Amino acid sequence: MNVSTGHAPFLSVRRSMGLVIGIVLLHRLLMVWTENNLELRAGLNDLFNLVVGLDVAIGMFYVANRFEKIQRIKIAWTLLGAGISLSILATVIYTILETKGLLTFPSIADGFYLAFYPVFGAGLILMSWSPLSSIQERVKTLLDIAIVMLAAFLVFWIVLIAPTLTMEKNAEPLTVMVGIAYPLCDWALTIAILRVLYSGPGYIDANALLLLAFAGISQIIADGAYLFQSLAGTYIVGNWVDTLFVASQSLLILMIAFQLALQPERSTRRVPVNTASHQFGWALYIPNLWAVVAYILLVWAHNNALPIPFEMLAWIVGCILALVIVRQIVASQENARLGRQLQEELVERKAAEESVRKLNEGLESRVLERTNALTLEIAERKQAQAEREKLILELGAKNNELERFTYTVSHDLKSPLITIRGFLGFLEKDALAGNLDHVRKDTARIVEATNKMQRLLTELLELSRVGRMMNPPVDVSFNSIAQDAVEMVHGRLTQRGVVVTIAENMPIVNGDRMRLVQVIQNLLDNAVKFMGDQTNPIIGIDQRGEDNNGKPIFFVHDNGTGIPSEHHEKIFGIFNKLDPNAEGTGIGLSLVQRIIEAHGGRVWVESEVGKGSTFYFTLPKSPELKTNEH
Fold first, then answer.
1. Angstrom distance (rounded) from CA 15 to CA 101
2. Residue 182 in this model has a pLDDT that exceeds 70
3. Which end of the chain is more exposed for a tag (fewer CB within 10 A), N or C?
4. Closest CA to 111 of 185, 35, 32
5. Which of 504, 465, 463 is nearest to 483 (CA)?
């Protein structure tokens, strides 16, 4: 058999099947073709046996080499290969003696042929050896083997051994011994094959093991047929018996292919390939089959003469049937024991299931508690993370605002200082020149600049206090806040002729009353400031619904000049003035935004040029009002 040097075999199982079928068919065709030339026929038959046997021996030695870690299996394959090698050597010697006309019976070739049986049988026993699980298993196995041994011995005695003794009763003792040695070895090989089938796959591929058993059975049948035909004088070289010999050898090629098809790691691992199936199930019926054969022989012997006394045959068949009955009793006792064990296991399993159920209930309870705790912890962490992100955003906004604030303050405070500095120079020149009129004007400009700086510093200080210095929040009607603010700017409103309308029944809010009045006051001042040339100036204070968070939305609307859309965001910046020449410092709307945000609300403007402006803002409700709503 051709093999590669790696793990993968040269021939796959499918190719091996084709090869085996081809070998058997070719042998049969050649034997038919050389039917009239017995010398050529015998030569071709010996050549087939040599080539196939050599291929099988090489394959077995190769498989043995793959079992590096399992010495028992390695030795078993080596013994199988050695047995085949002895058979090859016997065939070579037989052919040489036959060619030279020196062939006798017995000859040295018979010694090597007979040596094949113990070596090959030892390989089978060693390969299939495995400890049985219990005493009952051992007893049943021994009984099965005893049944097969007795029944098979009867068959071999009647068919082969007794006729051989009859035919060679006048021959020399050595000839008689060698003559009956062949059927006795076949009988022993039958027992070894039975041991293989009872042991199951183990470390060997199941298909390979079955092919090995069938090859051995084919060998035994061919041996028996050859011996029977030789005794009857009907054997002709190259007949179906020789083809059966070649077929039994070819089955070993297919067996090796199945074994090599295993994964390399499965061939070298220390764990059996198939430990689940300890035996081939159908093999358990073999002893019963042999017992039936023995009984048929007994019935046949009642009316037909057999080469064994009827009384002895009856005793042997009786022993076989007794062993079958004992085997059934042992099996019944074991089944009863297994039934009890199964009942006990069922009770233990139910107890275990109940224990597991209770454990699962406790575990589910603990898992639920832990899950709730984790859910709460995750929610807290998410809330903390959200607050953290909110604080980071607020801090970033504060930093950006501080940066703008610093830049704006440094820029706007510098303007009055430059004015003061410049007019001090003029004042010095005018004083030296004695120009009192100019001195008074310069002094007035310096006073105006210092007053502007004082207003800037006062409003900046007020802006910086929002959010840090707040009065405790109280529930207050927004109508009263609007009325207080209108009273504070009453003079300016009257001077410009502005009509202010305040909606009735606006909600009660919760906040710093003084700061909220300051918000409306600044919005009123801003509205009056940008009325333009409106002849019928009107300002309205009202409330419109709530935002998504349930906070009421208030607004202050005027019909003044309006604000371009590109300035809707900028006007809330510090010192951002739409009209640089307009009165005021530009901090008013920044102060409004700071106060509203300190109360948790927001402020925005909607305006179009020439259509007035509406400043919206949200404020928190009174807690009592929220409770009543719920």
1. 40
2. yes
3. C
4. 185
5. 504
